[in-house]
Design a protein that fits this description.
- The chain has about 110 residues and is of the alpha+beta class.
- It has a domain at about 1-75.
- It is about 65% helix and about 10% strand.
- The chain has helices at about 20-40, 50-75, 85-105; strands spanning about 1-10, 10-15.
- Strand 1 (about 1-10) and strand 2 form a beta hairpin.
- The longest helix is centred in the middle third of the chain and has 29 residues, at about 50-75.
- The radius of gyration is 30 Å and the shape is elongated.
Length: about 110
């Protein structure tokens, strides 16, 4: 495992990183550092641990919102029908059409079941 030294809120950290994951880790560090700096620069909170907790909560909330939006987008897209289901649906449509035609003949001009 590779180690990378990073700066978050002006403090150095030595982080373990799997091979090939350097860019993702650096992007995560950038997001955390930006979130923490934004909270610190607002001036209301000075304690580093409180800033970290608030930043973590903000990032988790954003992630949950994004996940919910993706889930909603997937729900809004029609699911593709598998080939076997298409065949069954086509067969069902033909049977339904035939049944409706038979009902129309039985009802005649009246158009009412009772």
């Amino acid at each position: 495992m590779k180690q990378i030294e990073v700066q978050i809120l002006g403090q150095g950290y030595l982080l373990g990183c799997p091979e090939g994951g350097e860019s993702r880790l650096l992007e995560a560090v950038e997001r955390v550092d930006t979130a923490m700096c934004r909270i610190r620069d607002a001036g209301k909170i000075r304690a580093r641990d409180r800033i970290a907790v608030l930043a973590a909560l903000n990032l988790a909330f954003d992630l949950a919102d994004r996940s919910m939006a993706e889930l909603q987008a997937r729900r809004d897209q029609p699911a593709p029908m598998p080939p076997a289901a298409t065949t069954v649906a086509t067969s069902d449509d033909a049977q339904l059409t035939s049944l409706l035609q038979r009902l129309d003949r039985c009802l005649g001009d009246d158009g009412q079941l009772l």
